[in-house]
Specification:
The protein is of the alpha/beta class. It is built from nine helices and eight strands. It has a single domain, classed as Rossmann fold (3-Layer(aba) Sandwich), CATH 3.40.50.300. A five-stranded parallel β-sheet has the order 2-3-1-4-8, sandwiched between helices. The structure holds adenosine monophosphate.
Length: 218
């Protein structure tokens, strides 16, 4: 099964994608995580991506599409995959459909996690991410001792782009470039919408239910 997660920054795409990837035993591919790993390793891709990410802008399509195409051609992804944070532009969505079709694959469902802008900003501001296992926590809902990840013991940090100025730019990029994708997946009858104002556990249960209603066997 090939799935993608849509949704504004802070919607909880990463958390839901991590859980679904464990449940379905298929890889979770986060373009944001790939860029951040490249940034911390000081690669050429990382240096380029950082110029955009640090300002809350999108990394150009040609770079991002090439990176995802290479990842999805790996043998591990042939049994299915979950994309988190890709596609983010219409160009990326069209390219994804095109190159998957070349080897007889397709995106089965696009899951859109919906929540209010006020909650998104609140979640981003209170988000802390584990540098080791990449799990993220909300300071308001998780008891975090000593900035340490309760799962793996790694250090929890605030992402550089989770500051108010960059959050505002990311929201602008979301509304301009990514929100139109909702209509793209509605028109091709692949959109599954899930409200996430509730707790994250409820969101995940709602995602599973919504997928099942839309004919996806979990
Ligand atoms: P995320 O971890 O998904 O919030 O992504 C963090 C940042 O990485 C975004 O704000 C973008 O600057 C960049 N990024 C991630 N995925 C993409 C994408 N599909 N297209 C362009 N830029 C991306």
């Amino acid at each position: 099964m090939n799935l993608i997660f849509l949704g504004a920054p802070g919607a909880g795409k990463g958390t839901a994608a991590t859980k679904l990837s464990e449940l379905l035993d298929i890889p979770h591919i986060s373009t944001g995580d790939i860029f951040r790993t490249n940034i911390s390793n000081g690669t050429e891709l990382g240096k380029l991506a950082d110029q955009y990410i640090s300002k809350g802008n999108l990394v150009p399509d040609d770079v991002t599409i090439g990176m995802v195409k290479a990842r999805l051609s790996e043998p591990e992804c042939q049994k299915g995959f979950i994309l988190d944070g890709f596609p983010r532009t219409l160009g990326q969505a069209e390219a994804l459909d095109r190159f998957l079709a070349e080897d007889g694959r397709k995106i089965d469902r696009a899951i859109d996690i919906v929540l209010s802008e006020a909650t998104l900003v609140e979640r981003l501001t209170n988000r802390r991410v584990c540098v080791a296992c990449k799990l993220s926590y909300n300071l308001k809902t998780h008891k975090i001792a000593d900035n340490t990840c309760p799962v793996c013991g790694g250090s929890l940090i605030m992402r550089d782009d989770d500051n108010p100025q960059v959050i505002a730019a990311r929201m602008v990029a979301y509304h301009k470039d990514t929100e139109p994708l909702i209509d793209y997946y509605v028109r091709s009858r692949r959109l599954v919408r899930v409200n996430s104002e509730e707790k994250i556990a409820d969101t995940f249960a709602n995602i599973l239910t919504a997928l099942e209603i839309r004919g996806i066997k979990i």
